[in-house]
Specification:
The chain is an all-alpha fold and about 120 residues long. About 65% of the residues lie in helices and about 0% in strands.
Length: about 120
């Protein structure tokens, strides 16, 4: 599907690109399939920044990821590309953004357990 989308982009065929994007969305929703590192690399390499397809990939990863991905995604920069990794980090920051309150201040790990950051004497 990634190669098909890039072909549609090169041909400037919006209808075809939208059909491919719909198929990607259906795959995520029906089969719990999130495009792989290889698919991300293909689309990022074959398209320019700012395209909605790139945002869709980032949104898939940011929203659908969970702790079980930790080991498989340890090296996102090399596996999916630096540009995607940067876009993903921005999306995750947006998802995780919390308003500042006194209550949230107390749950920050550096406030709750500051000793975990101290250098231990050998």
């Amino acid at each position: 599907m990634a190669r098909s989308f890039v072909l549609g982009a090169k041909l400037l065929d919006c209808v075809f690109q939208n059909v491919v994007l719909k198929a990607l969305i259906d795959s995520v929703e029906c089969y719990n399939y999130v495009p792989s590192n290889a698919a991300v690399r293909i689309i990022y390499k074959g398209t320019s920044s700012g395209l909605p397809a790139r945002k869709l990939l980032v949104d898939f990863w940011a929203v659908e990821s969970d702790i079980t991905w930790k080991d498989d995604c340890a090296d996102v920069v090399n596996m999916a590309g630096a540009e995607f990794a940067n876009d993903l980090i921005c999306a995750l920051f947006t998802l995780w953004a919390k308003p500042y309150t006194e209550a949230t201040q107390k749950h920050k790990p550096w406030m709750k357990e500051p000793e975990q950051y101290q250098i231990k004497d050998i």
